[in-house]
């Protein structure tokens, strides 16, 4: 029965990924799609873990999934123009 639950959870995740791509007009070739899906998965897991802490009163803000959810940290920094000075 655990296999059924994990299959259903994976299907729900895949549905969320497909919806994200539609909403944010993402189109990838199959290899890139798998790479981006894993980045998205890591982002979703991080957001869900953070929001579980929020629900317990351990943090003061909630997070959500947005346009940047399938981008790496470097890509987000380039997109937003964020530059962190390197120590000398």
From TrEMBL:
Cathepsin propeptide inhibitor domain location: 17-76
Listed Pfam families: Inhibitor_I29
Name of this protein: Cathepsin propeptide inhibitor domain-containing protein
């Amino acid at each position: 029965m655990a296999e059924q639950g994990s299959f259903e959870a994976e299907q729900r995740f895949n549905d969320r990924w497909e919806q994200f791509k539609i909403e944010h007009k993402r189109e990838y070739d199959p290899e890139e799609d798998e790479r981006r899906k894993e980045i998205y998965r890591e982002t979703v897991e991080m957001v869900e873990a953070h929001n579980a802490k929020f629900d317990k009163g351990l943090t003061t803000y909630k997070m959500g999934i947005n346009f940047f959810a399938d981008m790496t940290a470097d890509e987000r920094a380039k997109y937003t123009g964020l530059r962190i000075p390197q120590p000398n």
